[in-house]
């Protein structure tokens, strides 16, 4: 089974790094954003996409570019499952994966204890398994699985 781990830079990627025991047991690769910092090597292969900000003027153009980059990575790697902690970069490859009948697992950030995130609202409709780390979030995501703090 080939796994695709997806996370934006910062806290989302740090949370994903906590899954290193799972990562090392599978043929896996990482999809993340380009940044100026050297991050830990999580997977044997890493693909970088451009960092986008929802508030920037050219957001739509950058978002379309993200879809194209995600499709390229999906076609090249053909993952069986996507595991993601967010944020926005996870949405295109997750939707593409669902079109090709692949599994998607979304883990809502442990920083979200009381309110739903924008990425969570989008991914709730896409994910086959939606995991929350706060039981308060079950009011927003009734079909989610509450696992407590997993990071």
Automatic annotation (TrEMBL):
What UniProt keywords apply to this chain's record, in alphabetical order? Endoplasmic reticulum, Membrane, Transmembrane, Transmembrane helix
Tell me, what is one Gene Ontology molecular-function annotation carried by this entry?
N-acetylglucosaminyldiphosphodolichol N-acetylglucosaminyltransferase activity
Q: What is its main location?
A: endoplasmic reticulum
**One Pfam family of this protein, by short name?**
Alg14
- Kindly list the biological process annotations in GO that this record carries: dolichol-linked oligosaccharide biosynthetic process
Q: How does it sit in the membrane?
A: Single-pass membrane protein
What SUPFAM superfamilies does the record point to?
A: UDP-Glycosyltransferase/glycogen phosphorylase (SSF53756)
Does the keyword Cytoplasm feature in the UniProt annotation? no
InterPro entries xrefs? Oligosacch_biosynth_Alg14 (IPR013969)
* Compartmental location: Endoplasmic reticulum membrane
Stated name of the protein = Polysaccharide biosynthesis protein
């Amino acid at each position: 089974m080939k796994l695709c781990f997806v996370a934006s830079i910062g806290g989302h990627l740090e949370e994903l790094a906590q899954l290193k025991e799972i990562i090392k047991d599978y043929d896996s690769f990482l999809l993340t954003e380009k940044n100026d910092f050297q991050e830990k090597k999580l997977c044997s292969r890493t693909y970088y996409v451009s960092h986008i900000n929802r508030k920037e003027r050219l957001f739509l153009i950058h978002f379309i570019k993200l879809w194209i980059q995600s499709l390229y990575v999906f076609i090249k790697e053909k993952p069986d499952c996507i595991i993601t902690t967010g944020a926005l970069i996870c949405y295109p490859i997750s939707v593409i994966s669902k079109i090709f009948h692949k599994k998607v697992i979304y883990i809502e950030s442990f920083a979200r204890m009381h309110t739903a995130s924008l990425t969570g609202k989008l991914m709730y409709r896409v994910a086959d398994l939606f995991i929350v780390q706060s039981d308060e979030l079950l009011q927003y995501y009734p079909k989610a699985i509450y696992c407590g703090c997993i990071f």
